[in-house]
Design brief:
By secondary structure, this protein is of the alpha/beta class. It folds into 2 domains: about 40 residues, no CATH class; about 120 residues, no CATH class. About 30% of the residues lie in helices and about 15% in strands. The chain has 4 helices and 7 strands, in the order H-E-E-E-E-H-H-E-E-H-E. The strands form 2 sheets. Strands 1, 3, 5, 6 and 7 form a 5-stranded mixed β-sheet that branches. A two-stranded antiparallel sheet has the order 2-4. The longest helix is centred in the first third of the chain and has 19 residues.
């Protein structure tokens, strides 16, 4: 099963449409953006969260303000790099570099996009077996979908596997 069905067709439409328009005008025209759609969803068998290790993956562009480089939020093609930090990280040390969502809610309560303390409470209540010790973060603005498949996912998978999770919670921004 392909992560991106009809990849070549999607890329041809993206290249001749949205990308060509942006390169010619410097303007985003989301009306001509070809959003990928798969007919078959990617899934696996279910897991009992009470007996599982859960990893948190966030697309909010979170990074450690003092020790990590911010995501290149203004890049019109997206930033395809990853940041990791411990789940125990205090929220005041986390910043968000993402130009494509309103930061009002996350500035007031980072748990909107990084529900770390909520997940810790769920572990304490026995609803989740355990929380993987590392958060994986990236910037969710990435219109170049083939780069997600070719660059981001191959970089993401070893990080996820190294945490030994049974399930992942992807929190989109």
């Amino acid at each position: 099963m392909d992560v991106l069905e009809n990849r070549d067709q999607w890329f041809a439409t993206f290249k001749s449409g949205w990308l060509a328009h942006y390169e010619k005008t410097g303007e985003f025209d989301w009306k001509i953006y070809n959003r990928p759609t798969n007919k078959q969803s990617i899934s696996g068998k279910g897991t009992d969260l009470q007996r599982s290790r859960l990893i948190l993956i966030s697309t909010a562009g979170g990074y450690l303000r003092e020790s990590q480089k911010p995501f290149d939020a203004p890049d019109p093609y997206g930033d395809f790099t990853l940041r990791t930090f411990p789940t125990s990280t205090p929220f005041e040390t986390i910043a968000f570099a993402h130009d494509h969502y309103d930061h009002t809610a996350v500035d007031q309560d980072p748990q909107v996009l990084l529900p770390l303390r909520h997940l810790e409470n769920m572990v304490a209540e026995g609803l989740i077996g355990e929380l993987a010790p590392t958060v994986i973060s990236y910037s969710g603005y990435q219109p170049w979908v083939t780069r997600i498949v070719d660059e981001l996912i191959p970089a993401l998978l070893p990080l996820v596997k190294s945490e030994g999770p049974h399930a992942a919670l992807l929190v989109p921004s």
